[in-house]
Amino acid sequence: MQALEREHPAAGSLPWQMSHVPDSHNMGEVRRECAAAHTSLSKVIVWHRQLALQLGGTADSPRLREELQERSKEAHELSKGLRNMLLAGLRQPLASPEERQELERLWVLSLSALELFHQDLHRAHHLCQLFPLQGRGVQLLSTGVTGKATDGGHKPWRRPSCKGARSTEQLGAAPGLEEQIEHVGTMLLEMETRVNVPVWTVEATEEAGAESSLAFEAEGSCSERQAAEEAGGPGCCGQRQGWPALCCTLS
Amino acid sequence: MTVKRVDQGQHYRPRMAFLKKIEALLMEMQNPDTGIRMHTQRVMITNIPHAMTGSDILQWIIQHLKITEEEALNLGNLIVKYGYIYPLQEPKNLTLKTDSSLYRFQTPYFWPTQQWAADDTDYAIYLAKKNIKRKGVLEEYEKEHYNLLNKKINYKWDFVIMQAKEQYRTGKERKKADRYALDCQEKAYWLVHRTPPGMQDVLDYGLDRVTDPNENKKKTIDVYRREIMYYQQVIMKSTVKSSVSLGGLVKYSEQFLSNDPIMSGCLPSNPWITDDSEFWELNAKLVEIPTRMRVERWAFNFNELMRDPKGRQNFQLFLKKEFSGENLGFWEACEDLKYGDQSKVKEKAEEIYKLFLAPGARRWINIDGTTMGITVKGLKHPHRYVLDAAQTHIYMLMKKDSYGRYLKSPIYKEMLAKAIVPQETVKKSSSFPFARRHLRSSPSPVILRQQEEEAKAKEAATNVDITQLCQFTAPVPHLAVYTGTSVPSSPSTPHPSCHIPNNLPFQSPGHIALPNSTVCPSPISVALDTTPCLERKWDANESNTNHFPSITESTEISMDSESGTCNSQVPGNVEAKVLPKSRTTLSFSRFLKRGCLNSPVFATLSPKCPAVTHGKVQPLDDLEQQLQQKSKKVTNFFQIKVDIPLESRIYPIDSEEEEEDCPRACKDSVKEVICPWENFTEQEKAG
Q1: Chain B closest CA to A194's CA: distance in Å?
Q2: CA atoms of B359 and B399, how far apart (whole Å)
Q3: From A163, B234, B262, B324, which residue has the greatest number of CB atoms within 10 Å?
């Protein structure tokens, strides 16, 4: 598939295309880099979503919003980098068909990631407007989620030393978010239209349902996990026996 | 990138003002002073804050909005259904229980909004995550969704799985109470936005809109101009006073109350309740004896009569007596044209024209000149609705004129007397729920169709219009046979419709088939064999017609007809071909003048048609060969046929001038009814 021939003729002139060009023409490395970038983008998107989930609830706070901003910026940067890498990789005519295929697959996957991120940004923006923290009379919802900062595994919160700078930045939060949405939107559009990679050529590498057999490390005792699962679905699934059985298992 | 829509520009969800209102109410509930009291939910060893009892919610609504308990309960239910508050102990039961069952507020991220619908990708991630968590244990409908999504967004499935894993991993890293709350939230969200089967999808709003309801249009000149146009049109719309329209509604309701099966019950019993399908059988489309309710309904208004095929059948009997049967026939033919096959529209329109509208047509209907003009003009480019004007005219004619007399006629009264009132059956109490029920399936549509066609054939056979003399000049499929006979100047042709001998009979129920359809099938496959068939049909017919038995005999004697008695399923379809005049012809024409056109005499004249119920018309060449062999007989046969000039067809036959005109008109009558918009030569159609 000669995807790149259909690219915009002034390909090399736009600034964002010049930023990251792989030095080596080693396709394997490019692929690995792209895959790694994609994975980290995916992670950041998940963190962003986690934060957006708490918007408007009791866990909402200026710090949360800052964190949200940072995550979104991070995601934005990552996506830009990923895109450039992929573009560069796809542009190279020396690629073998499998590698070309792999890169196209990554291209499609990164498009999906960006799409999801774009959507999440919209949501976050909408919620930020709905629940302005400075505004009065807008109560935060008691959602039961009191997310303290002990979010192990997340990036640690920024030091409060730069808090002064943060507050001024926070005032510009709303327009910043809007800008970002626009940026991401245009990037998405560009990516979709400039490089002609038909979406249907990419297939899933794993079959459906394969993830159910994944072995995840138990985060505590087995019974605790079971209890959490049981608690998560009292009376909903047909297999659940209800509270009495739960008590028995937990002893 | 994702193929989001296949549409006609409908991208926008309609305004959902109620969402904003619920949200405002929810905000008020949060107030620490005047809001709802919060409890703590205890899940095993963890405490999760911010739980409220159902009764608290209800009380708060009642006090805050100052409404009755019933209304508050309704509102509370709605709030829960839309997913703003979710139950903790019975997650799937989205109702507000006014006891101490616990509820919690949904996080705003999961609120329903107008701007976007719940996304498929999100759902896929959720399902994959659930798969991971539960090791593949999903509900049935979830499994279905999962498989569907796997196919639909297969290209991003890797990303979906990646996200699911990542979400699962990060979710585990939160503290337990939060994790539990988040899980509950997400589950509640998907219960609302991807409802399991059996639950009501409250967010179903119909179709998407083309214009964005939230858009603030800048008021440019163009916008104003459009608004002005719109309002002008609105003013011009015809309006009805609400008192009048409401009065009409009331009247309708009162009139139809007794016929409504839900309001007034139905006899013998409601099949959905008692499993007894007698009700449907008694009210079948063309049942022999309809129920009394049904017959009484025909008297409500003309539309009711016309809607019911049985009613139309009965009405047609009456109209035949009054010699205006062609009106209903035309109406039904128009209905068939409107609702039939698009590919057959042109043919049907032509046939209808030839049968009903052409000057001198066999069943000519009486419509005024303007309507006729419009119709003929329209027929140049026929489409489904080309006959609408004429159809409406005839409809109104029947309604204003015949309908009134029909209701007073003995035919209707007889039907009313005959109509049955079914006995109410006792509901069979099935005490043994596993009793083997005798399940009778309704008759197969194929059989029903066959029965309908037979009925139609019967109708067509008995259908004779005795108003017009031109009847016998109507085309029949077997007329095609007469081409190339010993009468050289005769145009071989029959109506173009005969060329299409494989016409299927019209589809409309109760439709009286036009004779040029294959009601008379397989015309002369056994051309002149003597196979008396369907004589009984003529017996049945006698009661309806004026019958002059004496004349029959005399004409039979005077004719050197072909061998034996021939019967035809289509009466009176005597070919009007060019024939040398003969005395028999003259005497016969006089006979015809007396208007006894539907006597069995005609049956004897027409060539025999074996009683084949389904149109299997022999290919023309076979028939011709056969005929050519028996040409002598055929000639004789032709002599019987009456030769009436075209011009005189329209007028009642009471003048003696015809006879003189006959010779001259011989040649004229050669011409078949030619569609004014078509230009085919007779030679073309020669067999």
Answers
A1: 12
A2: 25
A3: B324
